[in-house]
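EI: anyone free to look at a 250-residue chain?
SC: sure, send it
EI:
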Amino acid sequence: MLGPSQQNDDLNRRLADQYQEITRLVGGLAHELKNPLSTIRMNMELLAEDFCDSESARDRRALKKVELVQQECRRLQDLLDNFLRFSKAHRLDLKPYDISVQVREALDFYRPQAREARVEIVDYLGTNLPTVMLDREAFRGALLNLLLNAEQAMPDGGQLVVRTYGTAEGVALDLIDNGCGMDEQARAKVFEVFYTTKRGGSGLGLSTARRIVEGHGGRISLQSAPGRGTKITIALPVLARLPADGDAAK
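SC: here you go
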């Protein structure tokens, strides 16, 4: 007869297996939806071209309707892309990297958009930090998502401090913005799947970032207050333990 601890472990494994199966099935559905959605988007673009030069009031009204459909198609495309990234977040290819180098490359890619959004990036990237195991593509995707979230929290511009440093267990990355901040209710739910305070948001960005960080054997935490900004910290171990199948999905 199994003891309580073994029963809990068995239940957790079954739940993790069920969760992965659901994620796999819905991920497959998302892939299937991308093809007809692409066809709809292409035909809407052709329709828009047909109407764009017309001076007819009727055609101008039709163009407005086409543009609305195009807008919703883009939103659905973003939602599908976000969900596919979320469903793949537990499948990581870990290799040794210098975290400061990876963060600097991501910041260099993001800086043009930051300037356009009037966001000043202040970086304090540590040197000679311990090497960590990263899936370079997945980690960069999570980091860029966090940078965009910080930008959206500063609609009138602001300052974003990015720093890396060593810890007793490994390395850490801080992202500190001076944006609008979050109240207690938002802080409690911000990493939950499909939770969002943004109009038209998918609610998958931060939950995907969390899955990716946890898939690296790390932790992500958040401190925030309304009107005072937000600090997100990612802590990674030097020798990351690759989770067993299903661990990252919990």
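EI: Confidence is low (pLDDT under 50) at residues 240-250.
SC: 👍
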